[in-house]
């Protein structure tokens, strides 16, 4: 498992290595809709998926079955019903990447 948070910025790019492959994550906060979005890129210019609305406790890439995506699940761990602009920076929310091999263990730990 890998825990990470986006930079304290309205719009940012972050390089992450997941399953021994580098990805570029684009995090953005949309003030009009009061929500975070996330995109995953092959590099700084080639999107794999873009503008996924960030929601609590849901596998955000589960509807995308592309081979280019990291093999695993990306969640936001939080006790909040919605994630506000400062919630990552204030430590109230954080992303977690769970590889397919770790998924059953992760689900079991969350249910306890």
Instruction: Compute the number of structural domains.
Output: 1
Strand content: 35-45%
On the 0-100 scale, what is the average pLDDT?
Answer: 94
Number of helices: 1
Category by helix and strand content:
mainly beta
- Major beta sheet, specifics? 4 strands, antiparallel
Low-confidence stretches: none
Helix content, binned percent:
under 10%
Distance between the termini: 18 Å
**What does the overall shape look like?**
globular
The largest beta-sheet arranges its strands as 2-3-4-5
Question: What Rg, in angstroms, do the CA atoms define?
Answer: 13 Å
What is the element string, with H for helices and E for strands? EEEEEEEH
What's the number of extended β-strand segments?
7
Structure characteristics:
single chain, 112 residues, mainly beta, 4-stranded antiparallel sheet, 8% helix, 44% strand
């Amino acid at each position: 498992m890998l825990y990470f948070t986006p930079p304290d910025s309205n719009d940012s790019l972050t390089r992450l290595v997941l399953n021994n492959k580098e990805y570029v994550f684009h995090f953005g906060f949309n003030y009009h809709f009061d929500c975070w979005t996330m995109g995953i890129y092959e590099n700084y210019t080639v999107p794999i998926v873009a503008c996924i609305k960030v929601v609590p406790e849901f596998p955000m890439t589960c509807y995308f079955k592309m081979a280019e995506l990291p093999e695993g699940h990306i969640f936001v761990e939080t006790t909040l019903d919605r994630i506000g602009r400062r919630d990552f920076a204030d430590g109230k929310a954080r992303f977690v990447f769970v590889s397919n091999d770790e998924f059953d263990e992760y689900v079991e730990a969350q249910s306890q």
